[in-house]
Specification:
The structure is a homodimer. Chain A is an alpha+beta fold. Among the domains of chain A are: 18-63 and 150-240, Gyrase A, domain 2 (2-Layer Sandwich); 290-372, Aminomethyltransferase beta-barrel domains (Elongation Factor Tu (Ef-tu), domain 3, Beta Barrel). The first copy, chain A, is 19% helix and 31% strand. Chain A is built from 8 helices and 22 strands. At the A-B interface, β1, β2 and α4 of A face β1, β2 and α4 of B. β1 (5-6) of chain A pairs parallel with β2 of chain B, so a sheet runs across the interface.
């Protein structure tokens, strides 16, 4: 496939960081929640090496927040997810598969509990707000539901903690994984969580107001100069190696959380009130018949995966799954991939064949992600 | 702004026509309903002249269909829109503003009534499916709600009827505006409506199954060769001249249908059951205080409108509206624009100032669209 330009318009929203991102030399974008998301600065491969060695600043404003506030906020949140939220304390972030009444995935956000009656749902690429509003209206819940102008900025990489401590102070080091603190920056308190869409460690700063965007960006760049900080973005190669799923790529409404390997985030027995609970109880008991797996696709670097690539039992036309994300991994010296594989072939070490744009490729199902 | 590449992935879905679109020389895309939408072939201006003189074939697969089927389908449809659907007959297409409980626009689809208990909602750029499913679940309605694999192909331009009659037969000529017929193509019956996102006349073919996509594209191209048929796409210049609104550009959840100038599609008194009716009753009585207007922005061709441009009372810092779409119009020899203008300044002929990226421009509010 040739390269195509992305036509700009208001509908494809810019972010408070877009001017800085473009000055930093962004090469390509995708559109995510009707907003620009950078996809490459130097190149996916150069960005990947840098992310694993140094520290990067990522404009992930497209992780929009749905704010749910009010007397019924906790009830509504539990309706959305099969994860049991009863013991969730303010200050915590939970990865929360969200499902419809059939158990189909609608989004896989991080839920941030700001207070007993106030949450942010930090969403992947779907207008989950519409579902949340529909349920709240249908059940006459006492909640306000809004999209506040909060623009997350991620700081990722092995030097992330060092850089963050220079900007926000040493207390950043005390923040535990998937917890947040409110830390001062230029007279405002920002929500800062230890989280992010990589396995290299790091933080996400939930920026508001937007006026602080460029001062924050500039502070990170200035104080990280000797750490070789650079602008970056979620990296396709690293996220596939780490089996970090992408909603719309690796899973859709067609899939249950169990199929997505997210069963550990489902407390189907105790998540009373989840609208998908009835549908998921059976799956939880019997287990899924297909599931997300990492795969190694042999041979030369593959083309990007634009449509799912069917997986076949070797030498046959029997389809046993599909690949939905793939990229060449310099560190593992093979193509790494994420796919949905049927029970009959999902055991680690099983050989299958992926139908790539340039023909069938022998592929090996992995026991686990390439990086854990 | 520089040009940026769009990074391909499965999440940004290709359409059954994408291979043909690329072979036809598409230059740029946008992303619309998580799907590729072409934005230019030769250039917006060359495409514009061709559209107004000849006939074009547009891949508008991104106008996804929400199918609502079942005993409560009509009840659910009326919940979604303030347009009175009681007298809508099968075979009709209605432009239907869809609103939330506050009267805020969620989408502005065309609703296609296939049968008494079966509708397609042909959507603009938002996951309206989530709202429809949320309401159906909350009210325990007896409906099935799906996104069938229907890919609309538009045939637009003054020669559209001639071309369509060559492919589908003379009965195409009998289809009235915003009505549809089922017409045979290679052994299948396709829904063919007289509609489309231009003022040049034409049709939309609701293609299914996807296997017919390339045969249909090729038939239109072959039989239209002497009509100078070309691949095209919704044209920014022409749609602004015609004041065809774009959800996400010219209107958002912040706006009521009345503000969007869509009051004629609202029967607020009789649309009993519409969830936004209570909120809209007051607006319908009192009228909005700001409304969509066409504007002429003087001077040289303007840059694309990426963020709303504030409109000011001349020589002041008093904001009286904003521009959300703008382009140079060769036929009107001025920049044409769409904006939201306050009551105090919305009368045709009023002079205001638009804050464009290269400074303030005198702008004249129009009485109506440039082309009707």
């Amino acid at each position: 496939m040739r390269n195509f330009n992305l036509t700009p318009s208001r509908r494809v929203r810019r972010t408070p960081f877009s001017d800085r991102v473009e000055r930093a030399g962004v090469e390509a974008y995708t559109v995510y929640n009707h907003m620009l998301l950078p996809t490459a600065f130097q190149s996916a491969e150069a960005d990947y090496h840098h992310l694993k060695r140094h520290v990067q600043v990522w404009d992930v404003s497209c992780q929009r927040q749905i704010e749910v506030r009010g007397r019924d906020a906790s009830r509504l949140l539990q309706m959305l997810t099969p994860r049991d939220l009863r013991s969730m304390m303010p200050g915590r972030c939970y990865y929360t598969p969200m499902v419809d009444e059939t158990g189909g995935m609608l989004n896989d956000p991080v839920t941030v509990k700001l207070a007993e009656d106030r949450y942010w749902i930090s969403i992947a690429d779907s207008d989950l707000l519409f579902w949340v509003k529909g349920l709240a209206y249908g059940f006459r819940l006492e909640v306000d539901i809004t999209e506040p102008d909060v623009s997350p900025l991620a700081v990722q990489g092995p030097q992330a903690e060092e850089l963050m401590s220079r900007v926000f102070g040493a207390s950043v080091r005390e923040i535990r994984f998937f917890r947040f603190s409110r830390l001062p920056f230029q007279g405002q308190e920002l929500v800062v969580a230890r989280s992010g869409y990589s396995k290299q460690g790091g933080f996400e700063i939930y920026l508001e107001p937007a006026e602080l965007a460029e001062p924050l960006w500039d502070a990170l760049m200035t104080k990280g100069a000797d750490l070789q900080v650079k602008a970056g973005c979620p990296n396709l190669i690293e996220r596939i190696e780490a089996q970090l799923l992408s909603y719309g790529n690796d899973m859709t409404r067609e899939n249950t959380p169990q199929e997505c390997g997210l069963g550990r985030f489902c407390d189907t027995l105790t998540a009373i009130g989840c609208v998908g609970r009835d549908a998921l109880l059976r799956t939880a008991m019997e287990g899924p018949v297909r599931q997300i797996r990492s795969l190694a696709v042999e041979g030369d670097p593959v083309a990007p995966c634009l449509d799912p690539w069917p997986l076949f039992a070797p030498g046959t036309t029997t389809q046993v799954g599909q690949v939905t994300s793939a990229a060449w991994s310099p560190d593992f010296n093979t193509n790494v991939a994420i796919g949905m594989v049927q029970l009959s072939h999902w055991t680690g070490g099983t050989q299958v064949e992926a139908e790539t744009p340039d023909g069938r490729r022998t592929s090996i199902v992995q026991n686990s992600a390439f990086i854990q």
